[in-house]
Protein 1
Amino acid sequence: MYNSIAPAIRVKIAILNNKLRSIKKHSTFKIIFVSLSAFTFLAGIFMCSYKLFSMLGSIQGVGIVLVTRILFLFFFSLLCMLIFSNIIVSYSTIYSSEEVEFLFTTPLSHGEVFKSRFIESLILSSWTFIFLLIPFMSAYGIVKGLPAYFYITLIFFFVPFLFISAAIGVSATILLIRFIPGKYFRAIFISLFILMVAYFILSFRLPRVIRPQNLEDIFMLGKFAPYFKFSQSPLLPSWWVTQGILSFNSGSIKDTVFFWLLLFTTAIVAVRFSTLLARCYYFSGWALLYKSSQSEKFDFVSIFVNKMQILWGFLRPGIRSLVTKDIKVFWRDPIQWSQFIVFFGLLAVYFASIHNLSYDILPPMWRNLVAFLNLGSTALTLASLCVRFVFPLFSLEGKRFWILGLAPIKLSTIILEKFSLWAIISLLITMPLIILSNTMLNVSGLIMVVSCIAVFLMCFSLVGLSVGLGAIFPNFKDDNPAAIVSGFGGTLAFVLSLLYVCLVISLIAVPFHLHFVLKIISRAVFIKQLLLSGFIIVIISLLSSGIPMALAIKRLKRMEF
Amino acid sequence: MIRIEKLTKKFNNFIAVDNLSLEIKRGEFFAFLGPNAAGKTTTIKMLTGLIKPTSGRAYIGGYDIQDDYIEARSLISYIPDFPFLYEKLTAKEFVEFIGELYGIERKKLEKEYSMYFELLGLTGYKNHLIEDFSHGMKQKLIFTAAFIHDPKVIIIDEPMVGLDPHSARAVKDILKAKLKKGVTIFVSTHTLSFAEELADRIAIIDKGRLVAEGTFDTLSRISGIKGKLEDVFLRITEEENRTDIKDV
């Protein structure tokens, strides 16, 4: 009997090879643009990390402590994100992928099918984080003046760390699928996630009785202290990685090897444990999932959306049915809704951290900076939400597009429907976000009004940009939204959204900086400048959504089905 | 070669397959017919081990598909109605992958797939990515992949969908040749002329229950109709309250 996962791995290498070769088919402009964007992204992370390490390192006394704590926090956050990423990716890779059904018809054992899918899940879940790790740790290494072999040591630490995270995430998925009935899966997943986020938020809250006296203390206590009890538990693999790096840094080879061995052996045990779990529950879990997809079940989405239809009941029947279809399809796709939920979890953690910032006692320059950083964070959240969830909408119609193409509705209606639906969803998410965060920061009334108007405009322009570019650069070959976003169109949408956000924030921030921080312009001039900025922002917003949408509608009219 | 014993599959309260028993001999062409949602695909998935029966057992070449699934599956080739293919592989890479999975020696594999590519008109496309293939081309590729490892049992769900007349003829000829070599073929199809032409025995399933089984002559006798399989099938699966065409 021929039993091996080698062919399944070789076939993945062949697929990767073909994908790389197919890059040649794209125009040189596209290749250069995507490469430059990736490089800029890496360089941006490097520069920010370099500045952070240099700034903290230069603070006398607590500087070294702060750098160390940043490392603990970084690897702890990485561990959390990797585990979540593995839970989500392993669901689609190990369970719901069509490939699994195919592999189960071959003479591979269930264990071998699991192993081949585990490796793929690990790679898919982890590769983006490697792009985060490389510039971050390079900045650390350069600031600390560490030798070249530090980076090789880092690889040795990071590989078992990835395996541990994957094994934890995949084991959680195996148990969830096997023991949580399919019809309750979404509800339980969301409830567990909300509970976990709530636990994090409550744990991060700093007692407001602590009133830090200077900027260093604010950094020390307000920003970082609440995270310590999580990130500095010696039972965490992230703690072992950080300790290993610190031991290497201090020249203690014995400790470095100890922590590496700790990681390595834990990785072996963790992977072995997930394999054992898979042996017991993988196939039966997969069969349960299949059974649940075959049987009629309590459909919360259907009931909820049908009840909510009253909200868009005033629309024409064609548009109304498009809206209903889009909402139902979105919430029935586990990849979409699970990432949407995780996205909200990250927002909640963001709130938890700004709650701890003592904005009201900051000096004017810092107050201005923090207020606009908050506006920037909200705008970037909106931009990433649009690129991740709105840009792929048109492509996801995919092979089904002929249905809409033949329907008695104008093609421009399809574009406008997606634009309106997501503009409203974005408003519902970001307006409370900016109002809440500004309230928590206790910003002035003027900043509150200005940032609310800016976010309101940005909702329409960023959604318009993503909807338009999504239709101009569709990808009908992929069904995975993450894969659709990673192409040329998605990259372009992200870069343009980023530029737009930077431009809008700069246009607002400059008059504030000149008046409140530098105090070189009078109130009258400040108001004039602010109004002028507002006028320019309205024009830019109209153009940035109008042009892509108009081009998209033009393209749709030429489209053949 | 295939033995199905009292196979039942329930999805909650819905009975997809109800107490089905069949025995199919070596070298037999067995057509498995039924209206939509009759339980054909569920039966096939239980037969390939993709889903577990609620009760009952299925054996391939004497191996229990649930307990000895690796041995059983190495005897089977399964061609689903909507086959999964690795879109980013070329046709050649795909069949090489299948060959490796089934442990076929390299030279033999190359000889085998070259022959089937030639027969099915895929030779000129062997280095093309599968994502560029039409449905029919993909169907021909999955047939090639099914034939190369010399299976003892071929299970096909809707074999003729998307095939052009030349390819359909080539597939039929290959299947006939396989039958002569003692391969057992289990086909679920709505193309009744195909079943009528090739099947040694026919089973008709409706609402999960086996309603008729035997040679074409036996089924004609049961239905009381002398004519085409289509008429026989329609009579056997006739519904009492069928809407009259005049109402449409």
Note: The first strand of chain B starts at residue 2 and ends at 11.
Protein 2
Amino acid sequence: MIRTLAIGLLLTAVSLATAAPTDIKDDLARVVSEQNRRVEVVQRITPSVVCIFDEDRLGGGSGVIIDPRGYGLTNYHVVMKFMNTRIGVGGLSDGKLYRLEVLGVDITGDVAMFKLVGKETYDHAELGNSDAVRVGDDVIAMGNPFTLAEDYSPTVSTGLVTGVHRWQGEGETLVYTDCIQTDAAINPGNSGGPLFDRDGNVIGINGRISAEMHKYARGRYNVGLGYAISINQIKRFLPTLRAGNLAIHGTLHATTTDYVDQVVFNELFEDAPAWNAGIRVGHELLRFGDVDVQSANQFASLIGTYPAGWPVPITYKSSGRINHKVVRLDPAPPPLRGEYTVPQEHHQSATRETLDAFRSAVNQSSATSPAKWKWKATRLTDDNQSSTFTIEDTGSQYTRTETAPDGSTTRVIHLTHDDAYWTENDRQFTLTTDQTLLYRATRALRSVFLSSKPLWEHDETTHQGSDALVTIDDAGHIQRERRLETIAWKPDENMTINIGFERGSSLPARIVVTDRPTQKRLEITFDDYREISGVTWPHQMTVVSESLNFIETASNLEVTR
Amino acid sequence: MHHIATAILTLAVVATSPANQDDPDLQRTHQRVFRNAIEQATRYTVQIETVGGAIPRGVITDLDIPTLNHDPGDGMPDMEDEDGMPEDEDQPSPFRDTLGSSFVVADGPTTGIIYRSDGYIITSSFNFVRNPTHITVRLSDDRRYVAELVASDKVRKLALLHIDADDLEPAPWVSPDEISTGQWAIALGRGFGGSEPSVTVGVVSAQNRMMGNAVQTDAKLSPANYGGPLIDVHGRVIGLCVPMAQRPGELAGVEFYDAGIGFALPKNRVDAICEELMTGESIYRGWLGIRFSRRADDGLRIVGVANPSPMYDLGIRPGDKIINANGKDVNSAQHLVQSLYMVPAGKPVHIIVRRGDLAFGYEPHLARAIDLGQLVTEPDPDPWKPFPINRSIKWPR
Amino acid sequence: MNLKRAICIALLAPTTLLAGGFNHAIETVGPRCVRLYGLKAGLSAGYGSGTLVSDDGMVVTVMSLLLDSERLRVVTQDGNVYGAKVLTTDANLQLALLKLVPLPRYNLRGERAPDPPSGPGAFKYFPPGDSRKLFPGEWVIAAGNPFKVAEGREHVSVTRGVFSARTDLDAKRKARDFPYQGEVLAIDAITSTPGTPGGPLVDIEGNWVGIIGRLVISNRTHTNFNYAVPVEVVHGFVTRYLDPDSAPDESTTDTGLEPYHGLKLFEMGYQKDLVYVERVKRNSPAKKARIKKDDLIVSLNGRKVGDVDAFRKIIRTKSAGDRIDVTLIRNNKLVNTTLTLEEPR
């Protein structure tokens, strides 16, 4: 009763307000101020838009600079024609042409990264959040349709978001999964150009339109349906693309189908990620990557947005029980004509940039080595046995001292630069390969943090691209997602060490040591960073060993000089 | 109780964020402002009707051969087809005026703007492609006049009409330096018939397009509003809507109709062109009078020169190569078209021609199509003949 | 002043649920727009759009080959799939009225699943709005199924534009005159796309103002024409089905008979002869209207007549006693007069 009354009152207020005569001057002032806001946004973002041509200044597409050093995004189909040389030309609104080098490409997702050469810093656009985009939002598209920009100042068109989570594409390449649909004019030549939200943040890369191509049809002109690759998808591939790598999308090796109101798995490969997560035919898919799945189509769309190896939370229902898992996706490489070669120089510069960013993030230049550190650790084995011990690293010697509950020391493991052993009853035992991995991992950790001159040289390391760490809560929701840039270092032929630096903070988040002959892996993740003596150190580490079947967590780091 | 709390909260949000696009009143405000601007502009927007005219479609004749007859579509990037169907290169497109194809020009009503109080109306030359025998103009107050086509600029697509009236209210214009990319742009047209202008809404997409001749807009432009005004929110004219593309041709640009690619001539360009047209002399498309090799690796190798033509008269012969035009290096027909398409007959261009190892600069004045002679395809019999340098011969407009 | 304004806005703001910006119109249009799927034949797309006009599932759409499909499926925005029965069509308006009917569905174990809601009260629908309130430049939202981009439970495709102009339809479809020649709402949103015709057009408040019309080429511009059939015409079509005794549709039709005007026009036999007067018969309506030899008739009732055919076409829609405003050019001046037609002789 009261509620009805309240709504009734509101309605009256509405009709009064709309019926009241309004002075057109007030209206004009409001519209002009809103218009000026848009004009300012357009002026601010215009210098970030690139007109892309091949070396002969023919053809044409668009791009957007996303980093002051000149890194930018475009469509793969824009640079496809000059992939043999990887060199094109980029025109900016300053009226000048710049050399454009193609870095990594995502053939499946139709994205390419480039770098402009010729200036110290470039005006760039900020990346927005495409997951927050709703149908009805204002958008601004920019680019060089029909190569009209003789002075390389881009064409601006405006419209609304007219659809989200759209799927557009055929075959295995240039598939737009989960893309944004807009009625802003997108025409040939807009390809690769940015779609901005009303505040000028990039929410997508325009690349496709719907057009009727038969004999009597209009042809390749905008008819109000343009599609942009969502920026959140691209964000997951950014390190990969910047390193010049070929982006590889992920797959669950499982498909679903719509059954009445359910989305049900109907085809699975044995030993594929989905299978290993316990999913079988007939199980109902509820959530994928923290999105409630409404249709099989939507699921296909969602999965297309993830790189291979990416950890994705999945929630499914099997015989009435709800399961929350995190699966790492299998690679689904695009069909390639010939081999994809990574341009070495871009590769190295991406590595260098990552390491430099890390060094300045931990303030390593002020670090003095060697330091001594000590961690208190708990080990939980597969059969739920737990033990506590301390880890101590003095630089020359690394010891693990396991302590019994009564406080008596039971075992000491020694790791030196050349040897690894433990002693018991005055006898010395050599470590197994599995245990040596641990040794290797801690050596890596030491070299990462303490060497003012790192153990790796740039030409020994490769930039592996993007990865992530995901933690989920009891309800299966993403609690935390840490995006990583991973660098691989091969200290010898038997060992690969992958170090993942968190994007943004540039702090090391994970070290993975792989024994190549046996393919055994040991994974250490770091957290709880604090500053000690001017250097940022992780104060928590978790060791997960698949082959030794244990999880170790260590905390309370003590560092002494 | 809850309702009150919500109301207060909202007050704070709205007050600090006036730009919230979900605010319905903002959109209503826009509508009132648009309506007001449209009412202002309706007064100076006229409807033009034509009768007669023999050519129902814009057929491109053989006259076009010795020139820049290159399909500009070649250089466009590929968009994936919606249905994956490959584009058939040879398919007839009704919207391209390349050789042999045609755009069926309708003879519906068209649009113009009152330019001067003494009876001058400006519109687009596109509206007279059919060469009508009679033109009438209907003012917003329904007065109708028989109009005389004073002259037209077939390059910038502007036509000047005169009616026997001296009490007209000319359109107010936005000064070109006040135009901002991203501002509202509303196009008015009379091409759909009816008693009021039709309206399309967009923004200014870019400025200084078409060699500095045009403002670009994403408001939908089409034969329904070519010749009409593109206005701002105050009802002032930003520009005169015309079809345009980066190539010559009376129908060039119509292919962009309703695609969110539209062009309008701002005040400074309109004034300059009208000053020329007031003399009664039309402005025609300019031609060099040459034909190029179609082989991609040939650069701009000339295989035919019309005699007479601006290039022939300067001594340029088949076998020579054009390497620069108006200061831009060119090595394809598309480059050359993009350098010269806005230059009308009678105006000079700078051309650098290469013969063997030598390069020479010239300043030919472009010619009208009707002044070009037969195509000569024989190379120069004596390639060592001294080559004239920096000569300039005037050709009629 | 400022304070007053702020309060006014604050009162409006909570009504986002009732009357939002574009979001409100979009949220309103979504569940009231349905997608049609059927047989693909030739250049016809095999999919289309419809608009819900009653709470028991009556849908208005345009006539098309799609309606001949044996298994026409209709999908609502919540992903429910229905069959459809064609209730009636109007060849002049090129509109069709459908009724949604349940389609049996089966789950993974082959059991019949419960039907989606149908019958009275099951559907959100549009009550007819008022298209005459629209003024040029006013925002409109069109919804539909262009290129069938949205599937299942996805949000229907929308596009924003403005109402451009009210005009009569003078258009061709596949080189033939389009039968409907009445009033339409021209819009600047592109709706001449496969699958869009039949979808609703709403104003910014979400009021239903029209149905996106079939793909046509305008005779006036020779371009694809984006328009909607006004809601009043659509409502009349629905009402005539529900109540056949209601007022019939008034339309101008070519009677084939030419009432007497007394003009002999100059005809060389070309397709596009201008309407020059060769002779005016004595005591004829034309004589009384003071039309003279060599006058060039350029419009009838304000509608341009570019050639003799167009002249005759308009005259044949008139009958004896009708008065026609004639505009002609005489000595390079425009002259207006009125012609009163008489019985054919």
Note: Residues 1-21 of chain A have pLDDT under 50 and may be disordered.
